[in-house]
## 1
Amino acid sequence: MKTILFVCTGNTCRSSMAEAILISILKENNAAEKIKVISAGTGAFSGDHASPNSIKVMEEKGIDISGHRSTLLSRELIDEAAIILTMTQNHKRNVLRLAPDAAEKVFTLKEFSYGDDVDLNERNDILDPFGHSIEVYKSCRDEIEEALRRAWEKRYFKFCVE
C-alpha cells in the first residue's frame, strides 16, 4: 500500500482538511483500501485537535475531522510516503531540508494537480486560513478539494492504486 503525505505548518487546518478530502474521494471511488493517507506539520505540536473552523467547514461537506490529531513532520514520515504534497513552496523546502533525497516525490499540491497550468510564482501556495473568518476556511477547503479532484480525474494517483 502506497502512502500519500500532506504537509502544512500546524497540521490543524490545510493538511488535515486535505487528508480527509482525499480519503473521501478514495471512498467515493472504492479505492480507500489501496492508499494510506496521512498528514503532518512542519511546526506542529503533536496531538493538537483540528481547528474549530476546519472542523465546521468539513462538516458542511459531510466529513468529520473532529478526531484528527496533529503530527510533527519527521524523516520517518517522509521516507514512508510515495508522494508528499505540501501546501506551500516553503513547506516543500522544509521537507527537502529534512530529506534532500525526497526531491522526486515532493510537490506543492498545486504543482501536482495542475502541473504547467499553475503559475509557480503567483498561485502555487494554498494560504493558511488560521485566524481568519469562516469564509476564508471555506475558500481554502474548496481550493484543496478542487486540486485533489483534478488530480484524481487526471489519474495522477494512478500508480498508487494499481
Note: Residues 134-153 form the longest helix (20 residues).
## 2
Amino acid sequence: MNRIAHAFMLTGVRGVGKTTTARILARALNCTGVDGNGGPTPDPCGVCANCVAILADRHPDVVEMDAASNTGVDDVREIIEATRFKPLSARIKVFIIDEVHMLSRNAFNALLKTLEEPPPHVKFVFATTEIRKVPVTVLSRCQRFDLRRVAVAELSAHFSRIARLENIAIAPEALDHIARAADGSVRDGLSLLDQAIARGSEDGTEISAEMVAEMLGLSDRGYVFELMEAVMAGDAAAALAVTDTAHARGADLGVLIADLLGLAHLLTRLKSVPALATSNALPEAERTRGLALAAGLSIPWLGRLWQMLLKGVAEVEAAPDRRAAAEMIIIRLCHVADMPPPGDLIKKLEQQAAQNSMGGSAGGGSPGGTRAVANGAPMQAVAAPRAITFQDVVALAGAKHDVMLYAHLRQSVHLVKFAPPVIEMRLELDAPRDMAQRLGALLEAETNRRWTIVISQAAGEPTIADGERQAENAARQHATDHPLVRAIMEAFPGARIEKLHAAPEPIADEAPPDWLELAPPDDVYNEEED
C-alpha cells in the first residue's frame, strides 16, 4: 500500500472511460475478496460488500464530485474536511473529482496542501479532458495516465457485438460510419448507435449505411471517390455533376468538401505507408478504391490538394452561399490538377538556361517567343525560358509564406555570387544565424537538389531593399529634374512629388510645351493697369 500513489490523474477525450476507470481503481483498492480477507488487487472480485456498494454508487467512503458544477473553494473545503476522518467500512477513502480542470484557481490552491501531505487512508482520483488547464503544481503531485482514443476497428467490432446481442441487423459499413463519427469515444459511439437503431426499420430489415450516413449528415463515400476522380482528371463538368447529384440527395456540400479533405489525407497515408494496403484498419471497399487512386498521384500533388481543401473548408463556412463556395473550390481544384509543381518549374528553367548557355545562338531554330495561355486553362509548358536569378529565390520565399526569411533576404543579404546551385552572400549583423540552413532547405525542397550557401565577408551588392530605395531616389531625382515637373513645382510653391508611377513610354526631357502659359504675378497686372 505504501507504494501506491496517493493521487491519480486520468486524462483523455470524452467517453473513453475515465470515470469508469476511477471506479474500478476504487474497487481494486477496497476489494476484500470472496472470503472477505483479501487485500488490494488489480482484479477486484465484484462480489464482496465493498465492490457491490461501489458498483451501485452507494459506498459512503467513495465520494464522487463533478467539478464542472462544484467549482468553488467551499466545495473543495468540504472534501478537505472529509479527509480528516477515517473510512467507515472501506480500507481506503477514495475521492473521485471529474472534470477537475473546471476548479477555480483558489480551489486548486486550497487542495494543494492536502495533496502535498495526504492522510494515509485517502486517495484522490482526478479525471479531465483538458489536461493543459490543470496547474502544474497539481500535476506534479499526481500519477498521470493518458487514456488513448479507441481505434475505429475496435469500436466497429464492439458495436457489432452489441448489435448481435440485441438482435439488431446493421450493415458493417454503417458501423464503420458510426465508429468514425465517434472519434475514438465509446460513449459517443453508443449514443449514435442508439439513434441509428431508433431510426431503423421496425420490420427487422437491416440498417443500411445510407441511412446512417443521412443521420450523420455525411455524404455518400461513393460521391467522394467519384469527385476525387473527376478532380484528378481535371474534368470540371464531371465534378460539378457529382456535386449536383450529391446536393440533390440532401448532402451538405460543406461536409462534402470536408470528406474530400479526409480522402486526400487517406490517399496520402496510403502513398506514404504501403503497409496500410494490407491493414484491416480501413474498410475493404475504401482500401481497394483508395489504392487505385493513390497509384496515379504524387505526394507533392496531394500536399497541394490538402492545402487548397483546408482553405476551402474555411471558405465554405464563411461564405453566404455554401453551394456556390463549394462549386468554386471544386472548379479551382480541377484547373490546377495538371499544373506542374513549383519545383519542376524551377528545374525546367535551370535546364533550359543551361541548354541556352551551352548551345548559344548556333541553332537555326526559330527564336523563342511567349505562347498565350487561355484564361483558366491548365499550364502545360513554360513560356519565355530564362535563367533564374536571386530575385527569383527571394520571390520563392515569399510564395512559401516564410515571412522572416523573405524579409531578411531583402534587407540583410548582400549578394556576392549567384551561380546555381551555389549562392555566396554577406549577411548583416541582424540576420539570423540559421539563415543559410533555412535558405538551403527551402531551395533543396523545391528543386530536389542540394544547394551550397556560402557566407562571405566580401562587400557584395547592395541589399534588395537598399537597391529599391536607391532606384526610387534616382527616379524621384530624375522626375524632379524634368523641365515640365520643375516648371509645375515653380508655379506651385510648396508642391512635392508624392508618388511615382511607371509610364508606358519614357517622357522625353524637353522644355514645357507652348500651351503651358504660367499666370504672371499680381504686380504684372498692376503695372499693366497703370
Note: The mean pLDDT is 81.
## 3
Amino acid sequence: MCTAAASEGLSAVRYRLDDLLIDLERQRVERDGAPLGVAGLSFQLLRHLVEQGDRVVGFDELIHRVWAPAVVSEETVTQRVKLLRQALGDDGRSPRYLRSVRGQGYQLCSRPHPLPVTEPATSPAPRSQRPHMRVAVASVVLLVACAGLWTWKQHAGRSHLPVAAPAPEQPSLLQRAAYYASIGQRDNNERAIGLFDQALQAQPGNVEALLGLSRAYSARVCLFNFPPEWAARAQALAEQAILAQPARATAHAALGYSHDCRGRIDDALAGYERALALDPAADSTRASAAYLYDRKGLLAQALLANTSLRGDPARVRYLQLQIAGILDLLGYPQAAEARYRQSFALYPDNVFSNIAWPRFLFRHGRTTEAQAALDEAMRRGTEHADLFLLAAELAQLRGDPAAALAAYRQAEALRPQASLPATLAHLQAGPVDPVWAKARANRLARELEGGAGYPSDWLEVVVLREAAGDRAAALASLQRAVDAGYRDAAYLRVSPLFRMLAAEPEFARSVDALNRRVALEHRKVPGALLERLTASP
C-alpha cells in the first residue's frame, strides 16, 4: 500500500527555478520574498521558457510564441534575453538561470518545479456535511498521491531520455521566404530572394512570389546599399503583378516601394495612396505614405497618418522612429529623444534606429554623445552610407579633415551610384574645379525640377554652387529646398557644410521661412494628439 500522504495538489501556475519563485498567474518573480523587475516581454519570454521545462527553445519558436504578431529578428530576441538576465541578476558568462545554446536557442539551466498551491479560503461547508467531506477529500488525495508515486517510479528509469516535441507543421516555400524577408537583415533578405526565385521557377506568374521578390529587390536598394537597377527590376515585377490582379492593394504598395527606393517621391505616393484606397487597413502602407508626407514637409498629415493605424502599431516597422522625427521637427525634442533612445536600445539590428539616434544627438549639438552613439552603431554591423556621412560631418566639426575624407569615401564606396557621397568626397579631397561644380549642380537641379528626388536633395545643389563660387545661387537653392518641403532647421544650423553661408542674411531668411511653415503645420495637429504623444511616461 502507498504510504505517501498529500494534502495539496500540484499546480502549473507557480514554479520554483533555483532560488526564484515564478507566479505565472500574477506575472511576478520573487527571490527571498522580494519582487524582481521582470515584466512585459521579459516576463512573457520567461513564461514560455518555464512552460517548456529544460528543453532547448529555438529562436523561431520564441519569436512566434512571445512576439507574434510583431515581426522581429534573432538579434531582438538576444537583446530581450539580455534584459531578462539583468532583471534576474544573471550572468551570461556564468549563467545560473538561463543559458544560450550555440546555433539553437535558449534553455533554462535547471528544470523548473511546479509548486503546490495553498487552497483558497472559501465559505465553510454546512456543519452536517463537513466531517464526511473531509474523509472523502482525504481519500481522494491519498489515491492521487499513490497513483502519482507509481507513475513517477515508472518514469524515473527513463527520465534521462529526451522527450520529443511535437513536430511543427512545415512551412511552405513562400511562407519561409516571407519570414526571412520580414526580419530586415541583409543576409536574410538574400535568403528570401533565393526562395522567392525558387517559387517563381516552380510556378511562373505566381503573384505572391512576384510581389515578395519585388519587395526584396527594393529592400536591397533602400536598406542594403545595392544600385538602383534592383529597384527598377522590382518595379517591373510589381507591374506584372498589377497586370494579373489590378485590384490587389499589395501590388500597388510594392510598386510604390520600388519608386520610393529611387527617390521618386510623387510616383511612390501615388502607389501607396492607390493601395490604401483598395485596402484602408494596410497599416504598413499607410506608414510608408506618412514617411513621404514628412519628407515633403507635410508634417501634420504625416503625424495623423502615423497615428491613424487600424491594427497593432507594434507590427509597423520604423513607426516610432517616424513619429519621433516629426515630433522633433514640431518642437518636442524630449518626446523624440525618448523614442529614439528606446529604439536604439531595443533594436540593434535596425539600420534606421542605428542612424536616427546619433543623428538626433548631432542635430541638437550634442556631438560627444553623437560620436559615442555612432561608434556603437558602427560596431553593430548595419553598414549604411548615412552612418559614414554623419561620421564625416562629426570629423569636420572636430577639425579632422583626413578622417572626414575617409568617411566620405566609405559612404561613396557603399553607394557608388548615389550622388551626395561622391559630391562630398570630391569637395573634401582638395581644390575643386568651379566648372565641374557648376555643371554638376546644374544637372542635379534639372533632375529635381523634373520631379526626381527629395526636397533635401537641394542641399547638395547648395554646397556645389557654393563650391563653384556662386553664393547667391547657393542661397537661392537653399530657398528652393524650403519651398519644396525641407523642414530641418536644426541640421542647417549645426552642419559644417553650411558654415560659410550661415552668416548671410538670405540664409537667415530661409530658416525663418522654414520655421514659419513648421509653425503652420503645428497648428494643424490636434492638441489632444500632441498632448498624448508628448506626455511623460
Note: The radius of gyration is 30 Å.
## 4
Amino acid sequence: MNRTTGELVAVKKIRLEGENEGIPITALREMSCLQELRHPNIVKLEQVIMQENRLFLIFEFLDMDLREFLDSLPENYEMNTTSQSFLYQACQAICYCHQRRILHRDLKPQNLLVNSNGVIKLADFGLARAIRLPVRTYTHEIVTLWYRAPEILLGCDRYSTGVDIWSIGVLSTPNENNWEGVSQLPDYNSKFPLWQTNELASNLNAYMSHEAIELLQQMLMYDPSMRISAKQILVHPYFNDLDRTGLPAGHYDGTLQLDN
C-alpha cells in the first residue's frame, strides 16, 4: 500500500546479483517503455526504488490477470460482450504501442491485467523492443511458446508488429501456398505434418459471429505481411455494436493522441 495516498500498489522486486552485473536488461526495457507509454489500457509505473542489492518497480494495482479471470468464471458464463470489450481494449493498447514503434513481444493472458470494472491493461514490458527502420535483426527466443507467431517459431530474425497481433488472436501448417518464402526460413522443415487450414469457421460457428471469425482469421494469417494491423482491428465491423462510452480510452482508434 502507498502510505502517502492509501492506494494499493503492485510491487515487482528484482534482485541485483552483484556490483558488476548492473540492472537486468529486462528491467531497463520495462522502465524505459513505461516512461514513454501513457495510455489508460497500459499499466502505469508509479515509482522506481533502489535499495542496496534490490530494485523495486511500483505499479498501479489491478485485481487479477486475464488467466485468473477466465478461471474464475462459472461454467455457463456468457462471454460474448466481455470478449468483445477485452479484445478492443487490448488492441487499443497495442495500437498505441505500435504507433510509437514499440513491440511488446510477450502477449499472453498472464500479461493482461483486469480490474473489477472490466478494464484490461497491458503489463510486463520486459521483452519489449523499439522497432527500427529499416527492420533490424531481433532474437527469436521471445514470447511464451504457445503464443509465438509462426515467423518466430520458424527462425525469422526480422519481424515486426505482426508478432503481437498473432499473440492476441491465438492451427494448421504454413507452406508456400499460404506464405510465400516460408520454406527459406532457418527452422522450416518440409516434413512438418500438413495440418488442414479450413477448420476454424466450422469449429467456431456455434460460438462466434461471422464478423468475429473473420477478424480472428485475419489476425492468424501465416504471412505477417498479410496479417491485420492493430489500427485496422479497431475499425473492424466486429466492433460496430460495442458501446465504447465506458471504456477508459473511449473511442480511441489509433488516430487520436492520448499522451498526457
Note: The first strand starts at residue 9 and ends at 15.
